[in-house]
Predict the 3D structure of the following.
Amino acid sequence: MTSSIPDFHTRNFKLGAMSFPEKVIYWVIVLTPLWWLLGIQTLFYPAVVVGLLAVNFDIDKLTRVSIPACIWAWLGMAIVMVWTATFGLDDVGFALQRIAATFVTFFKSYSLIVTALLLPFWHAIRVKVVTRAVAWMATGYLVTIAIEMVMLAVGLGKEPFLPPLARLIPGGALSLLVTFADLQPFFGIPLPRTVLYTPDPPIVGVCSILSFFICLGEENRRLRQISLAGCLTALLISFSRLSWVSFVIALVITACFRSNLARQGSLWIGSLSSLLCAILGGLTLSDLVKKPLEIFNSARAESSKDRELVVSKTLEAWQQRPWMGWGIIQGSVKWYIYDIVLGSFSTYASVLYL
């Protein structure tokens, strides 16, 4: 994470001083709402990263540069995905549409991750460029949320729509729907909730947390403050309980790393937990965990049941085929009007979006 204190060089941060790869990455991040409205984000992002790597690819660097073990691990997982997907296609048939859907899923998932991890070894990409782009994107959260709140107030955007370009992408289009803010119950109270540029509100929460910590390194003080406000607003309006808890945990961990008392954290937590149990009338540590969990699940009970179903079915499938993963069809899950097949990597992503 970069320092938030500007110096002489960072005050004069100019877009024109960027290299070509930095400019491409900068504008790809800043123009995120455009790719969302066009419905091309799932293929556009990996295409940009793969294209940048291909422009200056030098295979000799694989031997000259020490590639971290984590990248080799991701490459191994990508190979495993291709292997299991081949088994899945062999089970359901090698139809052209299914092959295309499998390729698209691989291209936008493991291929994107491995290529993005390799890209800095071929191109010099400064952290402050990515930080500035994310800061502007987070500032755009405020604009998008404001527009969606106005649309919600006047009754516009009640039905999601599928961008024309999204119809050309093979596979399920559920994650490409452009959905605007609507009212959803939270502890029984209807409150506005939005997915912004993602298929599901919890993803907004996770992205907001990541953007928040990235924006802490922005050197322009005013932009940093506005972008952090955008991140917090997006996190709040996502009404993602898990994201809220994760954000607090991330802040606590960050504070611990900056404190000399971090090594004593486990002792403090244990002592405070025991003291709290004694004050509350002899509660056990198990009760101390169950009570907040009950409140946590009661906020949006239906959502909690849906996710419990997905997790349980996922574990069942993995137990049946621990080495095959999702390469072979292993049943389906009924969720409202959707019958989601548990087998291919394309539908696996849809299951997680529930």
Remarks:
- Residues 143-258 form one domain.
- DSSP finds 16 helices and four strands in the chain.
- Residues 89 and 295 are 43 Å apart (CA to CA).
